Amino acid sequence: MKPANLGVLFLIELGALAAVAYWGFTLDVATVLAWLLGLGAPVVLVVLWALFGSQKATYKTHGAVRVGFELVWFGAGVAALAGAGAWGWAVAFALVCLLSKTLAVVWGQ
């Protein structure tokens, strides 16, 4: 189960990126703005992850700061899905994130 959870952790990282892209592309705005948001929002998350979240992050986070960062980062994916009107997907994504991150803490991943 532990290796499977590592895979799920990676997939929820990708899921957050896909969620913010989906949000940007589905906004009822001018096409150019939708493209900018659909491509730009995931880029912002990637930069934040590279700076604070990844194993090789420039600025490593630990403890409560790490928890807060991940709540905001994965919460952005949940909020993006909800903002796009995909409430069922938002709830499902939140539950998978909660379960997988809880198991990662318990298993020391």
How would you summarize the topology of this molecule?
Elements: H1 2-26, H2 31-53, H3 63-83, H4 87-107
Q: How many strands, what sense, and barrel or not for the largest sheet?
A: none
Q: Which H/E pattern describes the elements?
A: HHHH
Structural class: mainly alpha
Q: How many strands appear in the DSSP assignment?
A: 0
What percent strand?
A: under 5%
The number of helical segments is 4
Describe the structure in your own words.
With 109 residues, this protein is mainly alpha-helical. Helix content is 83%, strand content 0%. The N and C termini lie close together (12 Å).
Summarize the structure.
This protein is mostly helical.
Features:
4 helices, mainly alpha, 109 residues
